[in-house]
Design brief:
It is built from 9 helices and 6 strands, in the order αββααααααααββββ. By secondary structure, it is mainly alpha-helical. The strands form 3 sheets. The protein has a two-stranded antiparallel sheet with strand order 1-2. The chain has a two-stranded antiparallel sheet with strand order 3-4. A two-stranded antiparallel sheet has the order 5-6.
Amino acid sequence: MECSESNFLMIRDRSCFQLDNGKFIVKIGLINNLNCLLDFLKQQQQQQKIMASSYVDANPSLSFDFINKHPLLQKLITWYQQIGTANKDNENKHGFLNHFIDTIANNLTKSSNNLRYSDAIKNFALSLYILGGKLTYEFIRLNLPGSLPSLTMLNTLILNSNLKISEREFRFDQLQKHFDALNVQYAFGSKDATSIIKKIKYDSTTNKFNGFPTLLDRGVPIKEYYQTDSFDTLKL
């Protein structure tokens, strides 16, 4: 092969030997390196084919025909591709939605006693329960299987995080610390969704009775006013 291009001539001079008859032969070291590279690429290609074949054999239902028959899967794949190529702001914007979809998908394939939830889902569940109440929480949880923790797990989270709501207890100091942590100055308040206590109830965790009208201290109900170890103390 004859060529007068300067770049070609430079490569030829570095990679070839010139014989007495004017012909050029490629250096044996370069040929060996090229063969090693080709063998490596062929090996990698074969491994990928084996892995792809094994995945299809293990998941025969996850074929292109199967995905094409389910528009939801197509939309999810497109959405995950968009998130994968989006910038960090968009990724943070859809961060919770990503957790929510992953939680539902993972839990739907597990038994009811082996469900798992991330911290983001647990925090969302607590907020929904506090703002929406028990009926709203259960309505959403039962209609979206695997999306939210059960009430038993939620009550455990509340007890462990010191979020248990107690009658006549105000937590202004704790609220201020929460504001400082979020760097906010204002918040909104929602109407209490708990039902009216129709009878006197005993709270074993605080050793007090709930349901009695309490005395006021400068307009604020006195906390744990009816805390006692004997019913005789409560007799009129």
